[in-house]
From TrEMBL:
Highest rank taxon of the organism: Bacteria
Protein name (Swiss-Prot/TrEMBL): IraD/Gp25-like domain-containing protein
Family matches, as InterPro entries: IraD/Gp25-like
Organism, scientific name: Enterovibrio norvegicus DSM 15893
Domain called IraD/Gp25-like: residue spans: 24-104
Amino acid sequence: MSYPDFPYRIDTQGRTATTLHPDLIRDRIEQVLFTQPGERVMMPTFGCGLGRLLFAPAGDVVAEETRTLVATALQTWMPDDIELTEVTVNFIGSALQIDVGYNLLPSGDPQSASFTREAAG
């Protein structure tokens, strides 16, 4: 089965671009991580809001708080889609890098995804 791709775009045939289930789940993880709470109409608590952390002082304490924030958000918003196995957070210069390990549900297939965001400005 195919699903609309994120971000939404038109494919070369002029139709809505589609993706497969593993990519759909990866896209949903990205949406949870980088959506600020309050951005979604009718879902004011959706998201993790990592954008605000791009300007936080890099350090072990902030990295651990970020890891906990990510794990909590994913377990809150995707409990039927993934079984979270690992979250690592690193600050690389002005960038925030998050690596997520998870098992797809219901199959249990192991997957991983990496997300990097640069600080604006």
